[in-house]
Amino acid sequence: MIKLHQFAPTWGIPNLSHFCCKLETYLRMAEIPYQTVDSLPGKSPKGKLPFIEDGNNKIADSDLIIQYLIQEHGDKLDTDLSPLQKANSIAMQRLLEEHLFWITLYTRWQYSEENWQVNKKAIFGGLPPVIRDIVAWVYRILIRRQIRGHGISRHNNEEIFQKGRTDLDALSDFLSDKPYFMGDKPTSLDATAYGFLINTLGCPIESPVKEYALSKQNLVDYCQRISAKYYSELSR
């Protein structure tokens, strides 16, 4: 059985990692059996979570893992999409993964000290007190450098959050009143969208982006539907 290595669940959502949540949601939507292993990035072949073990195969990066799963189990989610739909799906996933993600990362690691303390406890709380603050401090420096390297933190807060609101407008308009982003059935875009949206509006990290996401009722309802259908254990 596939072993999914990811962060331990917290905050009442499937995972505090957008990409771990994306991959686990894909596995559930595609009905591929797996078991989770609480892990840390240092154990991954590429130094990031998630990664999977499938027999002797160890694969990292959520996109590469999904490509592997399609090769091994077939394309159970996107096979009925037209070329245009697949193009739109890829564009929406890039918006989520390459833009909105960095804005939400900024809110956790840099925007406010209150958010940082919540994030720090969730990620590093299980470490021994002697090294917890040192490891958290080092990682915070590294992540903040990545955020600046991406470019998003070179803007002021209002500029950053306006970009986030624009992303959320696009997602809300694209979803419209459909049950899933591409229509009546879940696709790989929904695995990504849920993983990133629940990590925007469903976690205790406060920001104007979260407030704006919560004002988009169709996005709120969408996350509630996915949670109820695929993560019913979280509401018990």
List the helices and strands and how they pair.
Elements: E1 2-6, H1 18-29, E2 34-38, E3 51-54, E4 57-60, H2 62-73, H3 83-109, H4 113-124, H5 129-150, H6 157-175, H7 188-201, H8 208-214, H9 217-230
Parallel strand pairs: 1-2
Antiparallel strand pairs: 1-3, 3-4
Helix pairs in contact: 1-2, 1-7, 3-5, 3-6, 3-7, 6-8, 7-9
Structure characterization notes:
This protein has 236 residues and is of the alpha+beta class. The chain has two domains: 2-73, Glutaredoxin (3-Layer(aba) Sandwich); 83-235, Up-down Bundle (Glutathione S-transferase Yfyf (Class Pi), Chain A, domain 2), CATH 1.20.1050. The chain has helices at 18-29, 62-73, 83-109, 113-124, 129-150, 157-175, 188-201, 208-214, 217-230, and strands at 2-6, 34-38, 51-54, 57-60. The protein has a four-stranded mixed β-sheet, with helices on one face.
Based on the model shown, name its key terms.
about 60% helix, alpha+beta, Glutathione S-transferase Yfyf (Class Pi), Chain A, domain 2, four-stranded mixed sheet, 9 helices, Glutaredoxin, about 240 residues
Could you write a compact summary of the structure shown?
The protein is an alpha+beta fold and 236 residues long.
Instruction: Give the beta-strand count.
Output: 4
Number of helices: 9
CATH architecture of the largest domain: Up-down Bundle
Biggest sheet overview = 4 strands, mixed
Q: In the CATH hierarchy, what is the class of the largest domain?
A: Mainly Alpha
Might you state the CATH topology name of the largest domain?
A: Glutathione S-transferase Yfyf (Class Pi), Chain A, domain 2
Shape: globular
Mean pLDDT across residues = 96
Beta-strand fraction estimate: 5-15%
Tell me the count of domains.
2
What is the rounded Rg? 17 Å
